[in-house]
# Entry
Amino acid sequence: MMGPKETAHLVGVRELKIAFCELDRNGDREISSTELKDALLALLGEQVPLPEVEEILRDVDLNGDGHVDFDSERRSAALIR
# Structure
């Protein structure tokens, strides 16, 4: 699976921000496991088990707070470069 660093190089920051806002249904500027689970259902047309959703979230949660926050993930990706 590609991490934030690799993804940022393939897609522009503006496009990532637009996608992030689509996933952030409650507008709290974070993507939770519930929001990711709902997005995966919409994209795949089938339920993804919560443990799998949480594993995906852990893979992209660079600051380890259990959510994906666009600005902190972007800063972390910049430090990795």
User: Anything to note?
Assistant: DSSP finds five helices and two strands in the chain. The first strand starts at residue 30 and ends at 31. The chain has one domain: 4-80. The longest helix spans residues 33-44.
